[in-house]
Amino acid sequence: MAVLDPNEIMFTAFEPTVNNRFVMYVDGIPSYLIKKADAPGVTLNEIKLDHINVYRKLKGKAEWKNITLSLHNPISPSGQQAIMEWVRLHHESVTGRDGYSDFYKKDVSLSILGPVGDIVSEWIIKGAFIQEAAFGAYDWSSSDPTELTMTLSMDYCILNF
After folding, report:
1. Does 77 sit behind a cis peptide bond, omega within 30 degrees of 0 on the bond before it?
2. For the chain, N or C: smaller number of CB within 10 Å?
3. What would the pLDDT profile of 55-83 be if each residue is shown by its tens digit?
C-alpha cells in the first residue's frame, strides 16, 4: 500500500522568477540601457559510433548558444557609442586593425532578482564578445524609440546559484 507524503499533497508556497526582474552587467555599457536579454543555453552535441549494424551515441562537445540583447538608445549617454567602443576593441574600421582577444573578450553577469530586489540567481558569461551589432532602424512614419541589438558569443557560462 502506498503511503502519501503530506508535503506532496498539501499546498507548497513558492515564488517564481519573472521576466522583468534582472540586471545585466557589461563593462562599458550602463545596465539601465539593457532592456531585454536572452538567458544562456547550451547544446550538448553527440558523437555517433558505428558498430556493425547499429550506432552507439555518446555526448560530444558542449556548445553555448549566443545571447541576444536589446538596448535602449538614449541621446546622452549614447547607447550606440557604448557599443561602438566595444566593437572598436574587436576591429577598428579606419585602420583595419583587429584586436587581441584579451582586449575584446569580457566577462558578463546576468543577475536574476527576487521581488524585493535581492539576487536569487546569477549567470557568469565567460569570454563574451560581440558577434553582431545592429544600430536600429529609422522611419519617418514612426515615433517609436530606437532599439539597438547585440548578439554575444561566449566561451562558456557558469550558473552561480
Report:
1. yes
2. N
3. 999 999 999 999 999 999 999 999 999 99
